[in-house]
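User: two proteins, same treatment. go.

Assistant:
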Amino acid sequence: MTAAPILYSFRRCPYAMRARMALWVAGVTVTLREVKLAAKPPALIAASSKATVPVLVLADGTVIDESLGIMRWALARNDPEGWLDGDDPALIAVNDGVFKHHLDRAKYPGRYEEDGVTDHRAAALALLDPLETRLAASPWLCGGKRSLTDIALFPFIRQFAAIDPAWFEGLPLPHLQAWLERLVTSDLFASVMPKFTPWQEGDAPVQFGP
C-alpha cells in the first residue's frame, strides 16, 4: 500500500483551508501535521525552504508547497464535482495578489509599511464588485456549480467579512453574501475545520480525509 501524503497545515490559514477542501473533495487521505506557526517543526523547514503552509509531501518525496498546486494535483487525480471546469487563473490571481494585499492591511492596520492607500478596506471592497456581478448571473463564480475558483477565493473573502461582520452584512452585495453563507455552512467546510494538536516529531500519525 502506498503511504499517504503528508500535509503540513494550519487550521486557520486561508491557503491551507483551500488545499484541505480540494483534498477532501478529491477523496485524498493525508497524514496531517498541524503546524504551530510560532514554532515550525524542523521537518517542515526541511521539506520546503519557504516553511509556510500548506506543504504536501508525496510518498515519492515530491514536495508541493503552493496551495493552488496542491488543489490542482488533488483534482487531477480525482475530480468528482468537476471543479477543474471552473478554474479561472486570472480571477484567482487578483484574489491572491491585490485583494490579499488590501485584506492584510485592512485586517492588521499599522503592521505594514505605507503604500499610499489610505483606506484598504474600501480598496478591497471595490474588488468584490465584479464577483457580485458574476454571482448575480449564476450561483457560483464560474457557472451553475461550485468549482476550484469558488474554493480558492472563499477563505479570503471569509476573512474580509470577519473584520466587521455587521458592516459586511449591511453591504449591497446580496449575491456574494449568499454565496459566502453557502460555503461557510457547507458540510465540506465543516469537514476540514476540526481542531488538531500541533504536531511534534514522534507523534502518532493523524489521518485526515473523507
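Protein 2:
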Amino acid sequence: MTKILVTNDDGWDAAGLAALKSLAAEFGEVYVLAPREPHSYAGHRVTTHETLTLIETAPREFTLSGTPADCVRAALTSVFEDIDWVLSGINHGGNLGADLYTSATVAAAREAAYLGKPAIAISQYIKRALPLDWTSSRDLARPIVTQLFAQTCPAKSYWNVNLPHIENENAAPVTICEPDNQPLDVRFHREGSQLRFGGSYVARPRTPGRDVDLCFAGSITISQLHL
C-alpha cells in the first residue's frame, strides 16, 4: 500500500489539513507530521540549533514544534519509514508565482524533493466574497492527485497545485502552466518610524497564461517545479 506523508503550514488542527488527510486516505495509508503552530510565510526555514518537540496525537499522527520543512525532514529521516509520497496543504490561500519563495506549504514539498521523495503542494486560493467549503476543495483536488500519482514526479522536481475559489467545482478547467514571475503588489503605509504592509494580493500583476492569471480566472493550475 502507498504510504503518504501529509503536512501543512497552517498547523495540525487546520481544516485544510483535515481535508487533505481525508483525500490521502483514498490513495493509501496516511502518516501525519504537521507543525504544532501555524507557519504561514515561513518559507524554507529549518531548525538546526534548537530541540524540537514531537508529540503523538493519534496512531501514525504527530505534531512538531518546528516548521513545515522541519516536519518533512523529521518525518522522512527519523519518524516514519518508507514514505512513498508527500502531500502538503491544503493551504488556506493561494501559493502562486512569487508566493513560491515565501510559502512554507511549498517548502515542505521542496524539502521532500531534496530528500528524494515525490511531492505535491496544494493550496486553495480564496475570494473574500465567497464562502469556503473544504469539501469542495478536496473534491477539486481529487482528480489532480489521481493524475499526478499516476504520472509520478521526475527526480529533483515537485508539483505545485492551486485550486480556484468557485461555486461549482465541476466548472474548473485544469491547466499545466508556468508560475508567474511578476512581483506582488508591495506597498507600505508609513506612520513615523512604523511601517505596515498595505499591498493587495488580488492587485498583483498577472502574466497571461501563467498560474496567477489562470487561477484567478477559475482554473486549477499545476506547475512542475525543479530544484
